[in-house]
Amino acid sequence: MKISIGNDHAGPEYKKAIVKYLESKGIEVTNYGTDSFDSVDYPDFGHKVASDVEEGKADFGIVICGSGNGIAMTANKHQGVRCALCWTKEIAELARLHNDANVISIPARYTSIEQTIAMVETFLNTEFEGGRHQNRVSKISCS
After folding, report:
1. Active-site residues: which are they?
2. Is the dihedral of CA 36, 39, 40, 41 positive or negative?
3. What angle do CA 119, 32, 35 make, to 5 degrees?
C-alpha cells in the first residue's frame, strides 16, 4: 500500500506520528508536508497529495491542517478524489464504508494525536460497502 501525506504548519507533529504508525505497518509513505511550524499555504501540500491519488501513484491520501477544511476543499478539486473531513473514527469508518473516500482530512487543532491514529487505522482498514452507495458515489465527480 502507498500513502501520500501532506500538512501545513498546524500538523507537523500529527504527520510525524502518522508516518511512524504507517511505516510500522510496512506502508510506503510519500511525504509532502512541512516539518516546520512556520506559516505555509495548505493548498501547496493538498494538491500534491490529491494529484498522487488522482494519478494512481498513491492508494490513499492523508491531509492535515488546523481545521481540516481548507486542505479538504483543496483535495476535493481533483477529479476522482473524495476527501472526507473526519474528527472521530466512526466518521472515518463511514467515509470509507458509504462514500468510498480515498483521502482523509485531519483537523489538527480539534483532535488529539491518539484520535488521529485511530481514525487513520479505521480509514485504511475499512472497505467500501458498495451496493446502494455505489450509485451515489458515481454521481460525485463532475466529469
Report:
1. 65, 98
2. positive
3. 85
